[in-house]
Amino acid sequence: MTQRIDDYALIGDLQTAALVGRDGSVDWLCLPRFDSAACFASILGDEENGHWRLAPKGATNCTSRRYADGSLVLETFWETRTGTVKVVDFMPQRDRAPDLMRIVEGVSGSVEMSSVLRLRFDYGSVVPWMRRSDDHRVAIAGPDSVWLRSEPPVKTWGQQFSTCSSFTVAAGEKVAFVLTWHPSHEPRPDLVDPYEALEHSLADWREWSDRCTYRGPYRDVVLRSLITLKALTYAPTGGIMAAPTTSLPEEVGGVRNWDYRACWLRDSSLTLGALLTAGYVDEARAWRDWLLRSVAGDPADLQIMYGPAGERRLPETTLPWLRGYADSAPVRTGNAAVDQFQLDVYGEVMDSLHRAHEAGIPAEKHAWNLQLSLLGFLESTWREPDEGLWEVRGRRRHFTHSKVMAWVAADRAVRTLEADPSLPGDAARWRTMRDEIHAQVCARAFDPVRNTFTQSYGSQELDAATLLIPQVGFLPPDDPRVLGTIEAVQNELMHEGYVRRYSTDGGTVDGLPGQEGTFLVCSFWLADALRLCGRNEEARALFERLVALCNDVGLLAEEYDPVTDRQLGNFPQAFSHIGLVGTAIALESEDGDPAG
Questions:
Q1: In this structure, are residues 525 and 468 in contact, taking their beta carbons and an 8 Å threshold?
Q2: How far apart are CA 233 and CA 314, in angstroms?
Q3: φ/ψ of residue 146, rounded to 5
Q4: What element of type H or E holds 123?
Q5: Nearest CA to 568 among 530, 520, 527?
Q6: Reduced to 3 states, what is the DSSP secondary structure of residue 33?
Q7: How high is the pLDDT of residue 594?
Q8: What is the per-residue pLDDT for 363?
Q9: Around Cβ 535, how many Cβ atoms within 10 Å?
Q10: What is the pLDDT of residue 507?
């Protein structure tokens, strides 16, 4: 039976991540990086595409599960007729090779356990050659090699191209499994003690969590969201992945299935804000540095997303041997949107660097020159249509949000020069550009009859991204046009209490068939807009409804379907958790600065 997307929990080692279902099965894991080919891909196909299930014999779903306090160490409990057992799943921060560790601990009575490991390299398409080596099972195919061992050793056997084992644990007994990947042409890495690794992992995560400066009433969900953002960080570079998965559908059975295993520039400003307000300056600095390295070069070549180390080539392809989650095909890797022209990213980059400077993160010597180069390019291109922040695959348009973010780029440049006149640059020139963009947006993107900003110039469609207009400082929160836009979004884009990002009827905007769920970060944006215009009780009520959508271990996907009551899209989604953190902290702020 297909697990719901929100039936999964996340574990990871800050370079890759795995999804563990309530049935005890690891159904998604890419090795050695977030964007590498998966060796467990059953979430996008079936068991034959790779998984590792460890559970009491004959059991279906677990009784309960939780993360150990302040950590990414998952504890799953199973109560059976003969006793209770706990399974601890985690991936220790690696020295060299990635390890997936699963420790079975008897709690009461005795429980017969079953383990079935099906390794399938290259997204479930390659069955490896298996052999024994001392107390290990070794799987090899092409560039990949995986070693499996247990402590103490348990008997394993091969069955239907799987590695199986059966063992019993009594109260107080423990059995640890360790799965280690390394390049097949290299020798086996040194063995890691799983019990010591568990203690180190718990200590590392708790030390990190203790640095969180937020002490408000939503601390538990805020901290869980921050841990999730940290888990999506590619530690060698500081880049933060949008999600660890690909092709989890925005509509079950539909084609809106995308690869989110990349770092989006548009997430940068909100990510920096979330990290800085929660006290994580080192992570914010690492993200800022990743941003500077990634966007360096010709501003005409600026991309909307990059690989975790700043890679530019992310070619999109499909994997026809995978049927997709709940038959939602195609399954895609890479993302063709990388080649789109999206004006808003220039504003996001400028705003991110401005936020970092205001927070006291020392500026890199070349950063301002890079910003001047970006502004120079934007000055000659902001009047052009683009694909917009939602990466539509329909025709280019003059998207309102894109123009507003072009205004943000010019505004942040002016503010930087006003704060430090010693910097090179022409403040008067950027003021002129800022004023021209502002006037054009107000004249061409606002519908005076309906009293709302629309998705693009002259359109009838609405767009939840216009809720960001007061947050970025384009207009004050009490401006009648802002208030009218909030009301219009509530009237036309709300669905069962949550916000759609735009209308998908007929695919006229995004060029795609089908529908999608309500977009979680857009619902957080509405809460922010309500708070800014003084409607605090409504903002808090919406925020608390959104928090209630988190699954049993505090995770959010990209979207939510209120009709079927299930999360949709790639999981967990950084943008959703960034929205949660930002809104929670803002709700406790007496007079937050909307321009950040």
A1: yes
A2: 18
A3: -130, 135
A4: helix 121-124
A5: 520
A6: coil
A7: 39
A8: 86
A9: 17
A10: 53
CA distance 244 to 470: 31
Backbone angles phi and psi of 10, in degrees to 5: -110, 135
- Please report the DSSP string for 481-518 in residue order: HHHHHHHHHHHHTEETTEE-SB--GGGTTTS--S---E
For the chain, first and last CA: distance in Å? Answer: 46
DSSP 221-281: HHHHHHHHHHHTEETTTTEE-S-S-B---SSTTSS---B--SEETTHHHHHHHHHHHTT-H
Give residue for tokens 């991204």: 465
Q: How many CB atoms lie within 10 A of CB 109?
A: 15
Closest to 461 in 3D by CA, of 550, 394, 412, 525: 394
Contact 486, 499 (CB under 8 A): no
- Kindly list the distances between the CA atom of residue 512 and the CA atoms of 2, 335, 385, 393, 450, in Å, as whole numbers in the listed order: 25, 15, 19, 7, 27
| The predicted structure's pLDDT at residue 592 | 41
Q: What is the pLDDT of residue 505?
A: 66
Token pair belonging to 589: 């702020």
Write out the two tokens for 106: 């008897």
**What 8-state DSSP symbol labels residue 550?**
S
Q: Which amino acid is at 121?
A: F
Residue 156, SS3? strand
Find the radius of gyration of the CA atoms of the chain: 25
What is the distance between the alpha carbons of residues 481 and 483, in angstroms, rounded to a whole number? 5
Cα 465 vs. chain centroid, distance in angstroms? Answer: 18
User: Cα separations (Å) of 464 from 482, 487, 524, 582?
Assistant: 12, 11, 10, 17
User: Which uninterrupted H or E stretch holds 10?
Assistant: strand 9-12
Quick one: pLDDT at residue 229?
96
**Amino acid at residue number 212:** C
**Would you tell me how many other CB atoms lie within 10 Å of the CB of residue 274?**
28
Token readout for 369 is: 């020159």
Environment class of 235 (CB within 10 Å of its CB; exposed 0-12, middle 13-18, buried 19+): middle
Q: 126, 142 in Cβ contact below 8 A? A: yes
Those residues with Cβ within 8 angstroms of residue 1's Cβ, 6 or more apart along the chain or in another chain: none
pTM of the predicted model as reported, rounded to 2 decimal places: 0.96
Q: Which residues of the chain have pLDDT under 70?
A: 1, 504-508, 590-596
* Sequence-distant (≥ 6) Cβ neighbours of residue 297 within 8 angstroms: none
Query: What's the pLDDT score for residue 506?
Result: 55
Rounded CA-CA distance 495/2 in Å is 26
**Those residues with Cβ within 8 angstroms of residue 93's Cβ, 6 or more apart along the chain or in another chain:** 13, 14, 201, 204, 235
Structure tokens at 540: 């808090």
pLDDT of 365 reads 82
Residue 132, pLDDT score = 87
Task: From residue 36, give the alpha-carbon distance in Å to each of 13, 32, 178, 315, 435.
Answer: 14, 6, 20, 13, 45
